[in-house]
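Loading example: each entry is read as four labelled lines plus one structure line.
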Amino acid sequence: MTSMRVGFVGLGAMGARMAARLQKSGSRLTVFNRTRDKAEPLIREGATWADTPAAVAEQAEILFTMLAHPAAVKEAALGQDGFLYWLRPQTLWVDCSTVNPSFSREMAAEAHARKLRFLDAPVAGSREPAARGELTIFVGGDAADLEACRPLLQAMGSKILHVGGHGMGTALKMVNNLLLASSMAAFAEGLVLGEALGIEPKRLLDFLLVSPLVAPYMAGKRNKIESGNYAPEFPMKWMQKDLHLAGVSAQETAVALPLAGAAKELYELAARQGHAQEDFSAIYAFLNARQP
Amino acid sequence: MTSMRVGFVGLGAMGARMAARLQKSGSRLTVFNRTRDKAEPLIREGATWADTPAAVAEQAEILFTMLAHPAAVKEAALGQDGFLYWLRPQTLWVDCSTVNPSFSREMAAEAHARKLRFLDAPVAGSREPAARGELTIFVGGDAADLEACRPLLQAMGSKILHVGGHGMGTALKMVNNLLLASSMAAFAEGLVLGEALGIEPKRLLDFLLVSPLVAPYMAGKRNKIESGNYAPEFPMKWMQKDLHLAGVSAQETAVALPLAGAAKELYELAARQGHAQEDFSAIYAFLNARQP
Amino acid sequence: MTSMRVGFVGLGAMGARMAARLQKSGSRLTVFNRTRDKAEPLIREGATWADTPAAVAEQAEILFTMLAHPAAVKEAALGQDGFLYWLRPQTLWVDCSTVNPSFSREMAAEAHARKLRFLDAPVAGSREPAARGELTIFVGGDAADLEACRPLLQAMGSKILHVGGHGMGTALKMVNNLLLASSMAAFAEGLVLGEALGIEPKRLLDFLLVSPLVAPYMAGKRNKIESGNYAPEFPMKWMQKDLHLAGVSAQETAVALPLAGAAKELYELAARQGHAQEDFSAIYAFLNARQP
Amino acid sequence: MTSMRVGFVGLGAMGARMAARLQKSGSRLTVFNRTRDKAEPLIREGATWADTPAAVAEQAEILFTMLAHPAAVKEAALGQDGFLYWLRPQTLWVDCSTVNPSFSREMAAEAHARKLRFLDAPVAGSREPAARGELTIFVGGDAADLEACRPLLQAMGSKILHVGGHGMGTALKMVNNLLLASSMAAFAEGLVLGEALGIEPKRLLDFLLVSPLVAPYMAGKRNKIESGNYAPEFPMKWMQKDLHLAGVSAQETAVALPLAGAAKELYELAARQGHAQEDFSAIYAFLNARQP
């Protein structure tokens, strides 16, 4: 199976690393991206370039997408030269993009209407785990479809969770990022308040980062916070977008999210003040800033 | 030292358990509480009852307070029959109450003005750790004063942290509870959204409670969330009060806390709707409720 | 002109009253609604019933829509039997629904692609002004198109504002409702706090409702607040939806709305606690409630 | 009566103008301020300088205070050289400072314990109305005490409201500023969103500032918003402080204020980013700013 012809659409910071993992594990790739330069390293290793999503579809026995937001997925799938019009019947489309669950279900329905199969399979983890094939992958859809592509998913991720039916992979990813975004902002507030009250910053981090009250994830942000270098692992603008998508899903399900809502507005304010492209942990820098 | 005459003012759910630990470790207690019935178990084991805080002070070589809020501490210390007027010079007052740092510093100044010594030593942990002597104790003040009472603190806590000067123990406790309150509310939002999106609740908890994105503390709330029985370990009204105190400190230090602020209002709404006396994890029940 | 053949799609509480105004002013109506019973009063006065939006289009020289949300507009326009496929070239479609500006622009583009003309023309005002033809109508699109339908708009509204190009009518309506929703919640907070502090409620309203700090609109809610009867003029669930649409537009334009965001979550909590179908001023009742 | 010996403590931007009004109407002033330079214009017109609040008290038949916050009032009244220890029995103390109601009641009790009389009489209006004697004055306390000083209040204010007993003047002032702060932030959000959506700014203001959905007060901020010159009429840092005091009162009365809470944090963020000394309407500039 690892020598299947695999189509891959979307070669951003994450997608390029994920496609490379597939390639290394033996898949023959056909790839498309809005700009071709991102594909060059893969092409040098043997991947075939396609000029359109449709052209990827014509060669693919299975197709992966890793795009920035629902509109980008929809354009690639159903726009002019959309791949959904060209995939052979029974082909499996695996969407790894971070979208919202109702959108995943909409895409599943579009696929089914064309006798295609669909999995939502968004991933957790940033660039380094992607490069090492150590992502966590949340899968929604039929168990049989998951089994059909498990070896490929295992090339990209070290943890594969079958969460439930269509949209449930996306749903758990959404909850994941909601917790990430809110926890980081709350943690930053705690740091800023503690420092303002006079606690020595190093001692404060030493204590909090092993405290059961703090998510273990935060320890990975210590360097950024102490150095003030917020080179992006997860850019703030994407985190803010994920909070917005959670808000869309909350609206669809009549759920109130007062903290996540406050976090969304806070990240937007920070983004407008110049932190949009930085790692989302730069919310600490924004909260801690003081102009004369 | 463990046979020192120890004064203890404030025998609520926490104070009574802490005083019992001191008694078991050999201290001779003199105790005061607004209502005497809470003191009876200690008296049966040999503690002396005092009718006023002042009467405690007259017998104490060291004095502990564990009261509900700053106003209660001030009344006991400086009100009519306040103990500060009656402690012998050089006596050490250890305030274990959860207050705000500027209040701790104010009490330190009041103590110093009377040639007394002061430590702020608020505790983290709920009723069960208190009963087992396994609290975490955050200490602010002089190292010499901490050493002078360390054996007593060790009778109550398994982890003693010297955070810094006066008010710094209180400051770290404040940060601690801020993180606790915000994280719990954020976690509850994640659960409610995940369930509303269709993720099976048990699977959702199974995943989140071992996720690095979630504070390990949350696992201790699983039973409450699954059973719907919110018998209080940490009553919501106290958590809401601690968020308010954090807001007071934030104001004094010109810090913005958008998430903690949103959490404070959310807990207040929940408290008004009937959850005030429940465990603060009942915020999940409030967010998840839906009237026809 | 007033004897033009006018198509009208969407006969809810507002649409039925607006269509009746057109009918009274001489227009010959062809109407469609998901349920026919809402159309009966118009049919009795001479309106023609159509079984589908497409059937309305076939008879219409101009077409109005007044639907609940963007998805409903899209379904009527572009779904199976959508009217956009059947309108004659150069026909003017006037969408009075409260939607978001990017959606209005999308509909304008869909219309233009079919050689049709489009105006977004959402209305401000509740049921009574609708029945009297005293709505405010915010128009986005070409001035010539506005002039072409001005007499019809004047049958429904006493104030017609040409705000700008496509989507600008919708944009101003959105700002309008944003202010309405936030102001009402802020006003309710002021009332609840004032009463809790001991100000006599009647005196408080007497003062605030003529104060320059309070929007004159609020005076119209006095009866509801004093009587506790929140029969809907503007149901809370629609107001909450409008805040969500404002959030969508804010996301598209990278604007932060901390207060409107907080208001959105507050209305959702209130809706879940049973106020969804009441007038949105019932946010006062929700904030003021206290369970034992 | 207008030739009474009037003590006045606190000569900031507001207090100096209010004292000048009393002086012009015939009162013989004895004044105290932390820095003497603010008192010079009054001294040149005949006022007597006092070196301490106590020294003011010794000469005063009635005493006014206009100070920045509760702690400043307490220091002047009850600190070293506090005036409360020196006022003659039955003297009336009128506190015009913007504080919180429980503090006003505490001051009333302190006054009564010394056989003194007390009114809380905070004022609404900025520097220009203060200079013209056109403030609104909210009075809490006994009607007889109000009558005793009405001519003096009328020298400073054009509208005198007797709201209720002790603390009720302060309570209504608090509600007033709560509405002012929330409404301004909500209005700014509406402007920023409307502009971002493409509505021409002048047209947007033209429409909103006569809309019944907008508090008439906002019209007075148009010049600042259009010019970008936020010379303070009401500095943002004071408005932020008033929101904090409202939060303290909300906590004391178990009221939830989600919007006012969000506004408090927003103003704090804006203050930290450099807007603290500007007029509070600069919240528009903060929300509208965008860094590259």
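Chain C touches chain D through 60 residues (CB under 8 Å).
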